[in-house]
Amino acid sequence: MEALHALHRPTSSTAVVGVLDHDERVCASASFARGPASGDGWVHRNALLTQLRRVTPHDLRRRSPARTAVLLHCRDEETRWTEEDGAWMWGLRDACTLHGLRCGSYITLTASGWQILGEDRGGRRPAVGPAAGRAEQSGGERPAARGTVRAD
Description:
There is one protein chain. By secondary structure, this protein is an alpha+beta fold. The protein has one domain (about 1-150): Cytidine Deaminase, domain 2 (3-Layer(aba) Sandwich). About 30% of the residues lie in helices and about 30% in strands. Strands 6-5-4-3-1-2-7 form a seven-stranded mixed sheet, sandwiched between helices. Helix 2 (about 40-55) packs across helix 3. The longest helix has 17 residues, at about 85-100. The protein is globular, with a radius of gyration of 15 Å. The two termini are about 20 Å apart.
């Protein structure tokens, strides 16, 4: 989670999907604007599948998944479970199935910290902060959405 946060520096309206290798290192990732809040899992599944297809080839020919996808969902609002969380979790699971990946954690990131829903794990850092503060710290502006592909 920290590696995804460091790579993408997400703001409160960003989702980051990461693909982890067998050693749980980030091997591919993409960040994108979440759009308006929605309880429609199909919309989220399609957005995640589009990003996965853009940054990594599918693993559909493998007997069992070798890589794991995780989702970092950044928001301003509630730190507790929401209906939208259920839609994102379903979307992640279905996108993983269609891309030949193992479904990993669904992580929410707010100004107060992060939480892995369903596992009761969380922490204060990293957290979502103002985008302007991050741009000043890094010496320039960061794009709101981008993809990263790293070859091992």
